[in-house]
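W.,

You were right to be curious about this one. When I first looked at the sequence I had no strong expectations either way, so I just let the prediction run and decided to look at it fresh. Below is the sequence, 59 residues in total, followed by the output.
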Amino acid sequence: MAKIKVTKQKSAINRTKRQKLTLEALGLNKIGQTVEHDDTPNILGMINKVKHLVSVEEA
C-alpha cells in the first residue's frame, strides 16, 4: 500500500470544530509537523476536509 506524508501548514484557529478534530485524528498538532499515513480512502477523505490547512506528498 502506498504511503503519503501530510504536513500541517496553517493554524486551526478560527476553524470549525470538525476541522480541528480531523487534524487531531490525522495526528497533526503543531504547524510544520509531518505524519505518514497509508493511502486509503478514509485518510484521503480526511485530508480532503482540511486540504486548505495541509500539504500532501508521496512518501
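Here's what jumped out at me. Residues 19 and 50 are 6 Å apart (CA to CA). And, maybe more interesting for your project: Strands lie at 3-8, 34-38, 54-58.

Coffee later to discuss?

I.
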